[in-house]
Amino acid sequence: MFKELLARLLAPAPEPLTDEGARMALTALLVRIARSDQNYSEVEKDRIDRIICSRFDQDTGGAIILREQAEAMEAEAPDTVRFTRAIKEAVSLEDRIGVVEAMWQVVLADGHRDAGEDALMRLTANLLGVNDLESAQARKRMEAAI
């Protein structure tokens, strides 16, 4: 399944993603941000699972399966730009701000912000069409919620 999604993302003019493809791309993006500090911890995996459960109305088992599939996809994907392009085309600005909030939840999950995570957050938010102020506000909301 994810090989087809990767092929779609790598196409010169990618087709809009299905709901399933958008879920996979978002989850792979969450995995990418969690791995960006070279310390993909259990607390980050748990946070991704909880985001999947709440955002996609999945049970824990379904969330773990989706995360594991997204881990495999993320490992094979060449760059962040294609994930974000697919997500940007698939969801509204309001929902993209929700994506940035989910990413901040993952970054903040282990209690440590790394320079690599911050750099990837700036790049990704920008590519999603979410400006720096909106991203900072999303971060503050997630810090207050944690």
UniProtKB/TrEMBL annotation:
Q: What is this protein called?
A: TerB family tellurite resistance protein
What the entry lists under Pfam families is as follows:
TerB (PF05099)
Source organism of the structure? Pseudophaeobacter arcticus
Q: Which residues form the Co-chaperone DjlA N-terminal domain?
A: 24-139
